[in-house]
Amino acid sequence: MKHDMEKIDRIWKEAIEYVTKDRWATREVDEAIADRIYSRWIRETSEAWTKCGYRDREPLRDALEETFNQHYGEEGGSARLVIFSLLLECRARRGGHVRQGRPEA
């Protein structure tokens, strides 16, 4: 477990360092991209959400990865994927968009 946390910390730090090396000049664009992808994911998973109270996060992650890699290449895309995967997961949880009273979700 400690090793996993160290790895996560290292990956997060590397992602932040990558995007801030140029003061994250594309931040507003990246946030707009992530917001559009998130909104689409919410819409596309609404039926499953209503039926079973769960949203599959894999399509969200896949869309972020594909879009950011297309815009920034693998290295830049991966850094943004790490950052926005975490931020959008927090947003979904805070908004109650990932579970409906089911602790396992």
Descriptive labels:
0% strand
Can you tell me about this structure?
This protein is mainly α and 105 residues long. The chain has one domain (2-94). 77% of the residues lie in helices and 0% in strands. The chain contains four helices and no strands. The protein has helices at residues 2-20, 27-44, 46-52, 58-94. Helix 1 (2-20) crosses helix 4 (58-94) and helix 2 packs across helix 4 (58-94). The longest helix is centred in the last third of the chain and has 37 residues, at 58-94. The radius of gyration is 15 Å and the shape is globular. It starts with a helix and ends in an 11-residue tail after the last helix. The model has no long low-confidence stretch (mean pLDDT 91).
Question: Could you give a short description of this structure?
Answer:
The chain is mostly helical. It is built from 4 helices and no strands. It has helices at 2-20, 27-44, 46-52, 58-94.
Helix content: over 70%
The major β-sheet equals: none
What is the number of E strands?
Answer: 0
In total, the number of domains comes to 1
What is the string of helix and strand elements? HHHH
Proportion of residues in extended strands: under 5%
Distance separating the two termini: 21 Å
What is the CA-based Rg, rounded?
Answer: 15 Å
How many H/I helical runs?
Answer: 4
Query: What is the general shape?
Result: globular
What do the pLDDT scores average to? 91
Structural class: mainly alpha
The low-confidence runs, each spanning 5 or more residues with pLDDT under 50, are: none
